[in-house]
Amino acid sequence: MATEAHGEGGGLAFHPMDQFIIKPLFGGDTVSWYTPTNATLWMAITVLVIAGILIVGTSRRAVVPSRSQSVAEMAYGFIHKMVEDVAGKDGLRYFPYIMTIFMFIVTANFLGLIPMAFTSTSHIGVTAVLAIAVFVSVTVIGFVKNGAGFLNLFWIKAAPLPLRPILAIIEVISYFVRPVSHSIRLAGNMMAGHAVIKVFAAFAALLAISPFAVLAITAMYALELLVAFIQAYVFTILTCVYLKDALHPSH
Amino acid sequence: MATETTAGHGIEGVQGSQLASEMAGSCVNADGGAVGLPQLCGDWMGNQIFWLIVTLVVTYFILARIALPRIASVLSERQGTVTNDLAAAEDLRARSVEAEEAYNQALADARTEAQAIIAQNKAEMQGELNEAIKRADTEIAAKTAESEKAIAEIRASALENVQQVARETAAEIVAAFGGTADEAKVSSVVNSRVKG
Questions:
Q1: Residue A15 pLDDT grade (very low, low, confident, very high; cuts 50, 70, 90)
Q2: Looking at the domain assignment, is residue B178 inside a domain?
Q3: Is the per-residue pLDDT at B35 higher than 90?
Q4: Which range is least confidently modeled, B77-81, B86-90, B107-111, B190-194?
Q5: Model confidence over A73-131: pLDDT tens digits?
Q6: Are A122 and B50 inside 8 Å of each other by CB?
Q7: For residue A216, is pLDDT > 50?
Q8: If you measure CA to CA, which chain B residue comes closest to A41?
Q9: CA distance, residue A191 to nearest chain B CA (Å)
């Protein structure tokens, strides 16, 4: 959440969207594709935090784990079990990719809740890349593993024959809508929560309602902590579900 | 409130500074505030996508090369340790059961042995007792026989004494009546009287 750098000279200043602005880190106005920006900074911090949890935390390799090692093992076990339960044993080949996605999203979500922080996952550009990567790789895996049999995913044998073409059209549409819903769900949730907190923060400038505003910010923050985890979980489990469809296309 | 916001922030800012918005692209107004949704600003997409890909690749290599194998080995090592410890515990339990059985066996053996020893001792003591009783019986019998003999002797001597006394008394009585006692006659009479 970016600071309110510019006042409007009295009155209430609502800039709930300013926290999502991309700024070059080292001055300058232009943002080209290679410019180090606040997005770069917070993605780098995300990588460092992931490395801290998963590498530094487990560096002692203790049989009886310390607290930090327990966190790393819990994250590992959580995603490993999810992949195995949802996508099946043969889905475990893709476990490192899914773990990468989960760790990036969950860490970025939580880092975004630090005051003044920038939330990488609140940008549709970021979540769209993640979702399209999942969509493309799942589709490729589906065709490589099953060949044309992958198309059985759209031809529902359980349905009566006259209904099948209609269902096939619906299935195809829903298949191509997947990356859209997949990405907008995450970015939208992140953006909405942060913007609402920002609006309440602006209300806190009014003396009469500032206790309510502070209370509301606290409540929203608690909710956002929940949302930060749940959205990462949802994104990951949907990835597993799509992977399951690719590996076992017959329903 | 709402009018204030729009007036102060959105439209006026965009119209106010064409120069600044040209410099910063179309995503930021003159005050540095966001125009619309910053998420939808095309100018910033490339930058984020590039750095996201860098981030994901770096994260993937950190996870796949270092973190995940390490955690997997720690988990499997723990699994192994737990399995070993469980096996060792099972082994120790079996041994304790064995030891208990051996103990019970030893206890039972000791008990039967004690029983045997008691029975033997009892039999020995019974034998000794019987012998002692027998010996005592024979001794008593011997003593009794001796005593009976002594009693018989005493009785015989007493009888004789009585005859003697009777004879003498008879002789004296006869003498007191002025007769003369025939010794043979007196003794035969006394003998017949005493016997009868």
A1: confident
A2: no
A3: no
A4: B190-194
A5: 999 999 999 999 999 999 999 999 999 999 999 999 999 999 889 999 999 999 999 99
A6: no
A7: yes
A8: B51
A9: 9
Highest mean pLDDT among A71-80, A242-251, B9-18: A71-80
In a domain, B30, yes or no: yes
3-class DSSP state of B178: coil
Residue B111, C-beta contacts closer than 8 angstroms, at least 6 positions apart = none
Q: By three-state DSSP, how is residue B34 classified? A: strand
Residue A213 lies in a domain: yes
Nearest to A124 among B25, B39, B56 (CB): B39
Number of structural domains (chain B) is 1
Contact B63 A96 (CB under 8 A): yes
Arithmetic mean of pLDDT, B132-145? 94
Q: A15–B45: do the CB atoms touch at under 8 Å?
A: no
Q: Among partner residues B36, B47, B75, which is closest to A37 by beta-carbon distance?
A: B47
Binary contact (A39, B48; C-beta < 8 A): yes
CB contact under 8 A, A61 and B70: yes
| Min Cα separation A190/chain B (Å) | 11
Tell me, yes or no, whether A13 lies in a domain: no
Q: How many domains does chain A have?
A: 1
Residue A251 has a pLDDT of 60
Range of the domain at A173: 35-247
Q: Is residue A25 part of a domain?
A: no
The whole-chain average pLDDT of chain B stands at 83
Residue A30 lies in a domain: no
In a domain, B54, yes or no: no
Within a domain: residue B108?
Answer: no
Please report the residues numbered 191 through 250 in chain A whose beta carbons come closer than 8 angstroms to any beta carbon of chain B.
Answer: 191
The pLDDT, as a whole number, for residue B10 is 41
Chain A nearest C-alpha distance from B47 (Å): 4
Q: Which residue range is the domain that position B1 belongs to?
A: 1-40
Q: For residue A207, what pLDDT is reported?
A: 82
Q: Please answer yes or no on whether B33 and A6 come within 8 Å at the CB atom.
A: yes
A89 contacts chain B (CB < 8 A): no
